[in-house]
Amino acid sequence: MKNFLRNPLFIVLVMGFILRISMVVVKRSAPLLGDSVEYAGIAQNIALHGEFSMIRNQPTAIRPPLYPAFLSIFVMLSNRPWFYARAAQAFLDTITIGLIYLFGLYALNERRGAIFGAAFYALHPVFIAYTAEIMTETLFIMTWSSALCLLLYAFESNLKKNLEWLFAFAGFVLGLAILCRPSLILFPPGAAFLILLFHHKKPRLLRHLAGVLLCAYLTLLPWSLRNKQVMGVWIPVATGGGPALWCGSQLSRPLDVGAVQKQVAVGRSEIETDAEFYRMALNNYKANWPRLIFKLPSRLIHFWLTSHSAMFGIDQPISVYRQEGRWGPIVIRAVLWVFELATLILAFWEMYLRRTNWTIASTLAFAGFCYYSLHIFVGYWDNRYQLPALALLIIFSGAALSRIFPSSELQQNS
């Protein structure tokens, strides 16, 4: 028992949970804003009226179903649902710390680097902060990490036994992740392509990946059929892609996207509004594609190099803080920005060093980086959409840090 309590992974998990539940306590009464209001509204209608809607008797597909369904459990069980939902997310993100460790074992083939990667995730201030938000991040990253770890376990186990069902189950969990975050919907074939490209010598690889893709998309089928029946249109997961693509088609950030959405929605249904935004976005891309291509490198840099300082209440331009003589927020934002830069440099340095011992987990991490970078074509300022990929890159950042610190104690306790 004493050795277990001194186990580095146990210490990291306890430390991560304490930080997350502390954040939940601090933000226990935080008001719901933005997207959180919509998720909460749908959850209440699920729990109280048995319908997926924001307004009674007006079914919607504006949000994917998994997260509102998760929130509805707490609406049914308590009169303080958002506090208990946040507390549950602290537990879920602690599970993610363990999944990050497991993914690190597959990626690095060593416990020491995996422990450092898990510790990096456990201590990362942005992931701690999102735990207390009524947003999809925590549930999604846990579900997505579970799917990737199941896939890696299936590949490893299949070398020793014929466990085809593991690939099907990994696909099912990957489908659940899509039902939590629709933007993941094209990740499975993209990741499968890279796995085939880098690991084509593995036996029965194409068959296994085809099974994963089939099960992932079959998981969406019941919800898609609901949308067809209730909404009258075949919607794989959710509407809302139109406004996102329209935002990405702009040469500069629109000042008030909400106002534009309200204006376009006048006299149109939810589906018609989405279609109109797609039409507007395609017209913009046709008209502006040369200048948009020129802006892509800048967009990519700004997408990945961000402070995430808005999570800590620092959401005004630096010029505002300078005029007010408030240097504290400026310093905090600068520190967080440097922290993000260092994290990425360490991650890619470590991936480069491991290029001769490249694993399927490494390919999945690289696929995550490439895939989420595609957000520069949509609402490119929504830097929180990089977090799932960042969670995997952090594993390599932690491994890079593990080269700096003495190893004797970790090796003894691992």
Quick overview of this protein structure:
This protein is an all-alpha fold and 414 residues long. It has helices at residues 2-5, 8-26, 35-49, 66-77, 81-108, 111-123, 125-131, 137-158, 164-180, 187-198, 205-231, 241-248, 257-265, 270-304, 318-324, 327-353, 360-373, 387-402, 408-413; strands at 53-55, 58-59.
Comma- or semicolon-separated keywords:
414 residues; mainly alpha; two-stranded antiparallel sheet; 72% helix; globular; disordered C terminus
SSE inventory with pairings:
Layout: H1 2-5, H2 8-26, H3 35-49, E1 53-55, E2 58-59, H4 66-77, H5 81-108, H6 111-123, H7 125-131, H8 137-158, H9 164-180, H10 187-198, H11 205-231, H12 241-248, H13 257-265, H14 270-304, H15 318-324, H16 327-353, H17 360-373, H18 387-402, H19 408-413
Antiparallel strand pairs: 1-2
Helix pairs in contact: 2-5, 2-6, 3-4, 4-5, 5-6, 5-8, 5-18, 6-18, 8-9, 9-11, 10-11, 10-17, 12-14, 16-18, 17-18
pLDDT < 50 stretches: 409-414
Shape: globular
- What fraction of residues sit in β-strands? under 5%
Q: In sequence order, what are the helices and strands, one letter per element? A: HHHEEHHHHHHHHHHHHHHHH
Q: What distance separates the N and C termini?
A: 14 Å
Please report the total strand number as a whole number.
Answer: 2
Strand ordering within the main sheet: 1-2
- Estimated helix fraction: over 70%
The secondary structure category is mainly alpha
So how many helices? 19
Task: Using the CA coordinates, give the radius of gyration.
Answer: 22 Å
What's the main sheet like? 2 strands, antiparallel
**Average of pLDDT:** 91
